[in-house]
Structure formats: structure tokens, C-alpha cells
Design goal:
The chain has 265 residues and is of the alpha/beta class. It has a single domain, classed as TIM Barrel, CATH 3.20.20.370. The strands form 4 sheets. Strands 3, 6, 7, 8, 9, 10, 12 and 14 form an 8-stranded parallel beta sheet that branches. Strands 1-11 form a two-stranded antiparallel ribbon. It has a two-stranded antiparallel ribbon with strand order 2-13. Helix 2 packs parallel to helix 4. It starts with 7 loop residues before the first strand and ends in a 6-residue tail after the last helix.
């Protein structure tokens, strides 16, 4: 940072800063849509709920457009230059917050597809909050080999807001604890060490991104409603926030726009 200024990245419905080169190259560069879901139900209870009928329409779109649903770790490897290319029409599926409906609604609807899904989990809610999955449910999903469980901090704080409310030293301790406790608890309960992180509320800044890298997270994800490109910040990769308002038509347009660059991949 220059002159003491902190670059906050607010990625809910906006674009992350990625530098002049990235901006100039964005139109031609290959891109990968990463979709993020939260809750599923028969009816819309809140802004983060996707109806079962809407999700079924999404699955139909993915099939009709001949999408290849790839593991999120492959997207990260591609972005890091460790994987030369991804399959044509690559898409990654993620879900945040460990809501019970991910096990009770989403997983059964995905069962016959065999598609990989990454779940970003904050452990304080698991087997504790009424809306959250249990450790047994998470373990059962992981055991299928199709679900990867990754970190979403320990209890989902708004980290830039916490930074403003604390001294610099206190915030450093707090943020470090959120990232380390989450990773350690997930490894303790599920036996696998998380390597990816999703920022709560899609909010991060330069200091947090540096902290995640320093603590060994290979990549972190925010929001932004953009596709991942080779030029995005590795610790603030964008995802598309999926709500029930994104029906089959909007999803089709989103994917077709991303796939227009597949010839360059």
C-alpha cells in the first residue's frame, strides 16, 4: 500500500481491482464462472434462498450447454499456472455457510450428476446452529468424494468492519484466529486440511489477503459477479452470487458470455 492507504475490496455486485494489464486483457482472456449458492427450499424465505425448481432449472442449463463442472481446486491450479488449461465450458460449483439444505436438498438433486462441489464452512455453526449441518452430515458428503470442505473463517465476521473497530494489533490477532481456528477445526473433525478460503460477505482488503497467503491458504474467494480470469487477485477470486432471481435465462446468458472465450483456452 502507498501512503498508508488501505485498499478495501468490496465484491458484492462489483468488480475487484486487478490492475491495468488485467483490465486491458479481460475481454480476450479465458474465463471460468464460479457459482456460489447458500440455501435451498420449496419457497423463497429470504434473499439467499434458491427454490428447488430454480435449482433444477440451473442443472438443466448446465447439461444443455454441455458444461464441464470442474473441481474448484482445478480452477485454482489453472489460475496459479499449475494447470495449463481447463476443459471447454468449465464451471465450478460452490456453496457457503453449511446450511442444512445443502445436505438435505442440494446434495440429493446433484447425486446423479457426479459433479464436484466445494463447501465453504464456518465451524462455529456446525452441529450448533439450528440452520446448519452437523459434523456427521459434512463427513458423509465428504465421504462421497464429490464434496470438498473448505474454510469460511471460524464464525463469519465482517472482517473490514472488525478492522475499523479494533486496534491494529488486536485485529491482527482476531483475523489470524478466525483463519487458523477454522482450518484447524475442520481438519480435526473431517481429517482433511483446508487450503482454500471464502471471505465472509465477500469482503477483504490488502492486509487480509496478505494474511491468508502468509497462513498458507493457496487462494481465497470473494464475490463480485464476475468470472475467474488468469489476472484476478489470487486471494480475492470472484464468484457469481446465485439468488432465486437468477432463473434459467439469466444463467444461460451468464455462461454463454463466459464460454465465448473458450476458443482461447
Amino acid at each position: 500500500m502507498t501512503g498508508g492507504r488501505r485498499r478495501f475490496i468490496t465484491l458484492l455486485g462489483g468488480a475487484a481491482w486487478a490492475g491495468p494489464f488485467a483490465q486491458a486483457s479481460a475481454a480476450a482472456a479465458p474465463r471460468v464462472p464460479v457459482l456460489v449458492y447458500h440455501r435451498f427450499a420449496a419457497t423463497v424465505a429470504d434473499s439467499m434462498t434458491v427454490r428447488e425448481t430454480t435449482f433444477e432449472a440451473h442443472l438443466r442449463v448446465l447439461r444443455e450447454l454441455r458444461c464441464t463442472v470442474v473441481p474448484l481446486t482445478d480452477v485454482v491450479a489453472w489460475r496459479r499456472g499449475e494447470l495449463a488449461q481447463l476443459p471447454p465450458r468449465a464451471v465450478a460449483l460452490t456453496a457457503d455457510d453449511a446450511h442444512r439444505s445443502q445436505a438435505e436438498v442440494m446434495a440429493p438433486m446433484l447425486r446423479d450428476t457426479g459433479w464436484p462441489v466445494t463447501l465453504f464452512v464456518y465451524p462455529s455453526a456446525v452441529s450448533n446452529a439450528s440452520y446448519a449441518m452437523t459434523w456427521d452430515q459434512l463427513a458423509a458428503l465428504q465421504a462421497t468424494g464429490r464434496y470438498r470442505i473448505e474454510s469460511h473463517t471460524y464464525w463469519h465476521p465482517h472482517l473490514p468492519r472488525e478492522r475499523r473497530a479494533r486496534t491494529a494489533a488486536d485485529f491482527e490477532r482476531f483475523a489470524t484466529s478466525q483463519l487458523v481456528q477454522s482450518r484447524d477445526r475442520l481438519r480435526e473433525r473431517l481429517g482433511a486440511r483446508p487450503t482454500l478460503l471464502a471471505w465472509p460477505f465477500g469482503m477483504t482488503d490488502d492486509g487480509l489477503m496478505a494474511l491468508a497467503a502468509r497462513l498458507g491458504y493457496e487462494a481465497s474467494f470473494a464475490l463480485g459477479n464476475r468470472d475467474v480470469s488468469l489476472h484476478d487477485e489470487l486471494q480475492a477470486l470472484p464468484r457469481h452470487l446465485v439468488t432465486d432471481a437468477m432463473g434459467a435465462g439469466p444463467l444461460t446468458r451468464l455462461l454463454e458470455q463466459a464460454f465465448a472465450t473458450d476458443r482461447d483456452r
